[in-house]
Each structure stands twice: as C-alpha cells, then as structure tokens.
Amino acid sequence: MRRRKKERIQNKLERILEIPKELSSTEPKITIMNFNEMLIENYKGILEYQEFFIRISTYSGIININGFNLNLTEMTSDDVMIIGKIETIDFEPTQDN
Fold first, then answer.
1. Are the CB atoms for 60 and 27 separated by under 8 Å?
2. Which residue, among 38, 19, 13, 18, has the nearest Cα to 28 in the 3D structure?
3. pTM
4. How crowded is residue 25: how many other Cβ atoms within 10 Å of its Cβ?
5. What is the spatial distance between Cα 49 and Cα 55, in angstroms, rounded to a whole number?
6. Is the pLDDT of residue 47 over 70?
7. What is residue 58's three-state secondary structure?
8. What is the per-residue pLDDT across 13-41, written as a single tens digit (0 to 9) for each?
9. Is the separation of the CB atoms in 29 and 22 below 8 Å?
C-alpha cells in the first residue's frame, strides 16, 4: 500500500516539475546500432559475461545477448555498451511483469 502511495506522489511531482518520463523511469532502454553495438540504459547488474553470451539484470527482467567476440565497454552505474557480433537478444520478464 505504501509503495503505491509513494509512486503516486513521485508521479505527481514529476508532472509538476515536467520531468520527462525517460529520465525518471527504471525501465530499460535498449539501443542497437548495426548489429555490432548495443547500449542498455537503466540496468541493475551483470549476471554472466562470456565472449559469446551476456546476461544483464534490469528492473523489468533479464536480457540475454548471444553472439561472438562480445565485450562490455563504457560501463557506468546506469548504462553499459556491448560491442561485438550480436546474433540474438531475448528477454526473461520478472514475475511482477
């Protein structure tokens, strides 16, 4: 119950301050560029990292990336860049979603 009230107050504050939803959301944003680069914003952590497989935890679930010569670059607390030959991406939603 408290969580919903807190979310309503936060949403109201964001509307009053005119904060774009993209800035205040915890939903992941994925940008893929030419099958060789992938930017994931709003991630929680890296669960598994190998040259051919990467698992990344987000607030909405887990993102699995398969490919060749995959590397994590330009990591910050909010986003991570993956480079290499990206072949497939799949999603494992959390039980809440």
1. yes
2. 38
3. 0.73
4. 13
5. 7
6. yes
7. strand
8. 666 766 666 555 678 889 999 889 999 99
9. yes
